[in-house]
Write a structure and sequence with these properties.
This protein starts with 54 loop residues before the first strand and ends in a 16-residue tail after the last strand. It has 3 helices and 5 strands, in the order E-H-E-E-H-E-H-E. It has a 5-stranded antiparallel β-sheet, with helices on both faces. It is of the alpha+beta class. Helix content is 25%, strand content 14%.
Length: 192
């Protein structure tokens, strides 16, 4: 039994094969059904995560908004990426704009809240660039750290090609990459 679970919260369905021929209305209803998250997801980074962890972040625009790849908008967004990088609000290993969303491989200073940094960035561009963002964002920590970085970077760079926006990854103008990626100096045994 999972930690914190009690017999009253477990859902047990009838044995396989006994539901054949039943309509959905006839099927037994479990007492506690997971209906998804009831509210906002909070992107708090646990204390045990490495200070130099790299996250794949995806932020989407609200439907019907102006394209992020409109040249004036794209230049403003990529200039802000570089500014945040230079001011060490984040370390942008790779940042790529698509018409209705962006992908990034980012690291955050240990004292910074990932949600706060991304939220501030979105709020600024909502006000100054007229971009309507969807609430929240997707984040995934690269667990193998630098070992996964090339794989995720290749995935991010393939997005415009896969969407039919350009023929080759190098042809896509709306991306920014830091010149140097910090070396991984920790021994393998200290990585999680």
């Amino acid at each position: 039994m999972a930690r914190g679970a009690t017999p009253s919260t477990l859902i047990c369905l009838p044995p396989l094969g006994t539901l054949a021929g039943m309509d959905d209305d006839d099927a037994p209803k479990p007492p506690n059904v997971y209906l998804g998250f009831g509210g906002r997801l909070f992107h708090r980074v646990p204390e045990w995560v490495r200070d130099d962890a790299i996250f794949h972040i995806r932020v989407r625009c609200a439907p019907g908004g102006k394209p992020l790849t409109e040249p004036d908008t794209a230049h403003a967004l990529l200039a802000a990426v570089r500014l945040y990088h230079e001011r060490q609000r984040w370390c942008a290993h790779l940042f790529l704009l698509m018409p209705d969303h962006w992908h990034a491989l980012l690291s955050f200073p240990s004292e910074a809240s990932m949600s706060r940094v991304i939220g501030d960035w979105k709020k600024y561009h909502a006000r100054h660039s007229g971009i309507a963002w969807q609430e929240g964002y997707f984040d995934h920590r690269l667990r193998a750290h630098l070992a996964q970085l090339d794989e995720k970077a290749a995935y991010v760079r393939r997005n415009p090609v896969a969407a039919g926006l350009c023929a080759r990854e190098d042809d896509w103008p709306w991306q920014w990459q830091a010149n140097d990626i910090p070396p991984d100096t920790r021994p393998e045994s200290s990585q999680r």
